[in-house]
Design goal:
Layout (H helix, E strand, L loop, with lengths): L6 H21 L9 H14 L3 E2 L11 E5 L2 E3 L13 E10 L2 E10 L5 H18 L8 H14 L3 E2 L5 E3 L6 E5 L16 E4 L2 E3 L5 E3 L6 E3 L5 E3 L2 E6 L2 E4 L4 H7 L10
Antiparallel strand pairs: 1-4, 2-4, 3-12, 4-5, 6-10, 7-8, 7-9, 9-14, 10-13, 11-12, 14-15
Helix pairs in contact: 1-2, 1-5, 3-4
Bound molecules: magnesium ion (MG) (2 copies).
């Protein structure tokens, strides 16, 4: 059952989402060759607790850390380890917090030093596909419209869009109804209504859409070993239109990047 949120709840959720955004912004300049993912995980946990939140993933379904950190061919749910990042890697960082009883959950894929052009293009296109999906979050549209738009954009460019893992409703639980697939058919699925809050999170592979899981029980990686990107925002329906509760601006500020215009919906 979908739990639609009041304006007051949406403002609390914006605080939670923004704490995730600030955590990702804090991490951004630290994601460099030689950095140890496990150290970054500890920094994030401290930062979240110092700002009145609790890391949402720590202990969730027994996950051992605060961040999911998935380098290169890892799609999502990677466990932060001690292997240093290397020049040319990419690193998907997914972060969740619980604050004031509401969850925030969003993700960004970072470049570590200089990455190859195909991978650069994968990151830019996956990020854009997230906004392509967000533009469909209009009252009266259907959940299938979001996935259809993302899938179309992604497959036109020759990438594989992951099917087995999907976006989701968000609120007092981190995974609420409805599921928000990154593929689908226009006109299908639940109708989008005022007060809906969802996490949209395309997971896009340079090669095949197929995935496999490591025997650590967590890490999802591409079946063909090619790179994968993951971008996620928390989005509410306010006045019938998408209101993005999270932001990448802390990351852009930290890295000295121009904020892309397409962030404005
Ligand atoms: Mg999520
Ligand atoms: Mg997430």
């Amino acid at each position: 059952m979908i739990r639609y949120k009041t304006r007051e709840e949406i403002e609390l959720m914006r605080e939670s989402a923004q704490l995730v955004s600030r955590t990702l912004g804090m991490l951004a300049p630290l994601i460099v060759p030689g950095a140890i993912p496990l150290d970054l995980d500890k920094r994030a946990e401290e930062f979240i607790r110092d700002h009145g939140g609790v890391p949402a993933f720590l202990g969730l379904y027994d996950f051992p850390n605060s961040l999911c950190m998935s380098p290169n061919a890892q799609v999502v749910h990677g466990i932060p380890g001690k292997k240093p990042l290397q020049e040319g890697d990419i690193l998907s960082v997914d972060c969740g917090v619980l604050k004031n009883k509401y969850y925030g959950d969003h993700a960004y894929t970072f470049e570590v030093g200089e990455v190859d052009n195909d991978t650069k293009r994968l990151l830019a296109d996956t990020k854009e596909s997230l906004y392509v999906g967000i533009r469909e979050v209009i009252a009266g549209n259907r959940i299938g419209d979001i996935g259809a738009a993302i899938q179309e954009y992604t497959e036109e460019r020759g990438y594989g869009i992951v099917r087995e893992l999907v976006g989701h409703g968000l609120g007092q639980k981190i995974h609420e109804d409805p599921q928000v697939p990154n593929y689908g058919q226009r006109g299908h699925g639940k109708k989008i209504q005022e007060g809906l809050v969802i996490a949209i999170e395309p997971m896009t592979n340079l090669g095949t859409h197929r995935i496999k899981q490591l025997n650590d029980g967590w890490t999802i990686l591409t079946a063909d070993g090619k790179n994968s990107a993951h971008f996620e925002h928390d989005v509410a329906v306010v006045n019938g239109k998408p209101d993005i509760l999270s932001t990448f601006h802390y990351i852009y500020d930290a890295l000295g990047l121009e904020a892309e215009e397409y962030e404005v919906v």
